[in-house]
Design brief:
This protein is of the alpha+beta class. The protein has one domain (8-247): Alpha-Beta Complex (Creatine Amidinohydrolase). The protein is 26% helix and 25% strand. The protein is built from four helices and 15 strands. The strands form five sheets. Strands 1, 2, 4 and 5 form a four-stranded antiparallel sheet that branches. Strand 11 and strand 12 form a beta hairpin. Helix 1 (8-28) packs across helix 2 and helix 3 (119-136) runs antiparallel to helix 4 (146-158). The longest helix is centred in the N-terminal third of the chain and has 21 residues, at 8-28. The mean pLDDT is 98. The structure holds 2-amino-4-trifluoromethylsulfanyl-butyric acid (MF3) and cobalt (II) ion (2 copies). One cobalt (II) ion is lined by residues 107, 170, 201, 203, 235.
């Protein structure tokens, strides 16, 4: 499959959907507290998306049962919200939301902390955010996709972390997962070349321990670290512009 170059109208649609996904991550922040279940957060996100005339892309996607993914502590990604998972002081979690608005997809995730976390844990979160930002800075016409994974891998390793290689970023826009696969660990100047109008995610998952993931046998989704150590992730949907990038899921004017 080839990488789709989006036209103006498509880009505007993806931009709107991406903004809504970004807004849902801002909206949910007030509810992330000790004692709350991850299913409660899922329901809030579901209602927010529906009220904004969109649908949650994960609900029913390859049989996935919920409207977002919520991945706690040693869960790398694809944590399934549950009544039985109650947030407690010191937990860290990633909430990952993908919206479909007027047929267009936007996908973003970020970390939240419950109460107080120790310095090392906060550093994992900050360093993972920095990995995403380093990746974003590689986005411009003519650059290779491999350079995203090159700079992320170099930084993560220098800080003593490992980079998850079993889950990747992806093209997005008309579909949830389009070409290309965006690796977070790759060699310099490899892979496809970026062109204006391409839209894709960068979503590094960074582990304190070993990089390997183990999928839960019972639910078929939850991906955990094999050593029980912590994992963090941030994700944005990015557009390649004529001279660089636009972070479509950013609603904070950070970029
Ligand atoms: N939002 C995830 C991503 O960043 C995909 C979740 S698929 C699901 O690509 F089925 F687990 F929800
Ligand atoms: Co994604
Ligand atoms: Co996502």
């Amino acid at each position: 499959m080839a990488i789709i170059i989006k036209n103006k109208e498509q880009i505007e649609g993806i931009r709107k959907s991406s903004k809504l996904a970004g807004q849902s991550l801002v909206y949910i922040e007030q509810f992330v507290k000790e004692g709350v279940s991850t299913e409660f957060l899922n329901q809030k996100i579901h209602d927010f998306i529906i009220e904004n005339n969109a649908t949650p892309a994960t609900l029913g996607y390859n049989g996935y049962p919920k409207s977002c993914c919520i991945s706690l502590n040693n869960v790398i990604c694809h944590g399934i919200p549950s009544e039985d998972t109650i947030l407690k002081n010191g937990d860290i979690l990633n909430i990952d939301v993908t919206t479909i608005l007027d047929g267009y997809f936007g996908d973003t995730s970020r970390m939240y902390v419950v109460g107080e976390v120790d310095k090392k844990t906060q550093k994992l979160i900050d360093d993972t955010k920095h990995c995403l930002n380093l990746g974003i800075q590689q986005v411009r016409p003519g650059n290779h996709f491999g350079n995203i994974g090159f700079v992320i891998g170099r930084y993560a390793k220098a800080k003593g972390y490992s980079v998850v290689y079993e889950f990747c970023g992806h093209g997005i826009g008309m579909e949830f997962h389009e070409d290309p696969q965006v690796d977070h660990l790759s060699r310099k100047n490899t892979g496809d070349v970026m062109q204006p109008g391409m839209t894709f995610t960068i979503e590094p998952m960074i582990n304190q321990g070993r990089p390997k993931a183990k999928i839960d046998k019972e639910d078929g989704w939850t991906a955990r670290t094999i050593d029980g150590k912590l994992s963090a992730q941030f994700e944005h949907t990015i557009l390649v512009t004529e001279d660089g990038y636009e972070v479509l899921t950013d609603v904070s004017d950070e970029y």
